Amino acid sequence: MNSKQSTVSKFGLDPGKMPRHVAIIMDGNGRWAQQKLMNRIKGHEHGVQTVREITRACRELEIPFLTLYAFSTENWQRPAHEVTALMNLLVRFLKSETGELVAKGIRLNAIGQLNRLPDKVRQTLDEAIRQTAHNKGLTLTLALSYGGRSELVQMARLLADKACRGEIDPRGIDEAVVADHLYTAGLPDPDILIRTSGEMRISNFLLWQIAYTELFVTPTFWPDFNRQELISILQSFQKRERRFGRVET
Ligand code: IPE
Ligand code: IPE
Ligand code: MG
Questions:
Q1: Ligand 2 atom with minimal separation from the 30 CA
Q2: Which parts of the chain have pLDDT scores under 50?
Q3: Which domain holds residue 125?
Q4: For the chain, which has fewer Cβ within 10 Å, the N-terminal or C-terminal residue?
């Protein structure tokens, strides 16, 4: 048994059925805090601990891709003080974690309308991405100022521009070409999408990419989500039959 097989088997998981890509809608920070009569911002602060724990767990389980929905295009409409607190938290997270990301072979990546992020966030993010660019262990993608619809709009614009310049033939546009012009170009589609805090909705996340993703919604608020719960989701995932529209043969 190699090291991956033994780590994975230790948790009752089948090494041959591990997901390549886990995506998570990290929801419920505000409600977690409100339930404890705390400010919503406290919930976001505790949520950062969960990001750390789940990233470490995915690295240990040798899952190659983890994508976390951290801030949506719609989240810009929250009160300014909450947006500012989230941006500050992001800068602190990036600064404090880059060392560990480098040490653990984790490559940081970001998707979304990154040009809308404040300069300070953008610079810290670019620096962390640069420092981890050669890592091969786990690709941690943060969806920041991300919206699935705006991603599709920018893809349409890119392709239309290329067609106008004669660089592509519109009849040559197929699913692979579309996928190559999304923010997620180069990432496999998620095998698993987890949403914490019980809401049965997608909230504009990875609309194109989740066509055949297995969905898991847990009532747990994000700050209370942990490695054990991730492992039990992986166990249920391994029991599901993914048919991709076909019939069993
Ligand atoms: C998720 O928690 C974090 C972000 C959207 C930034 P929320 O802040 O949405 O928490 P709830 O859903 O209000 O509980
Ligand atoms: C989705 O959560 C976005 C993130 C987790 C970043 P929201 O809390 O913004 O979604 P809605 O408003 O419940 O749909
Ligand atoms: Mg929410």
A1: 8
A2: none
A3: 20-147+190-234
A4: C
